Amino acid sequence: xxxxxxxxxxxxxxxxxxxxxxxxxxxxxxxxxxxxxxxxxxxxxxxxxxxxxxxxxxxxxxxxxxxxxxxxxxxxxxxxxxxxxxxxxxxxxxxxxxxxxxxxxxxxxxxxxxxxxxxxxxxxxxxxxxxxxx
Length: 134
What we know:
CATH superfamily: Jelly Rolls
Low-confidence stretches: 130-134
Helix content: under 10%
């Protein structure tokens, strides 16, 4: 059995490459447990941060995911259903469900995310451009 211990402040924020921000959003994250944690496990866990006006654009991936709001307020849209999030709110996102996060508030929105997969690099994100309905 391996034990892992990390403090969020020990890690650097990671974001999408500049040429992918328009499609994916300006979300930043820190991976606490997973491919770079040095601990063999069957889970990946991290924190995503969205500053005022930022978003993680609509996407999906095969793996189910759990969100737990740590701080701030915003919305998480799952399959066209908008959920208000605030500290203490948990959301389960089924595999392949289209979802996105938006922060229109003044404070940073910080959400803990968890995947039941050992390596974050195995999560294949599929982003889609917004399509307006007329």
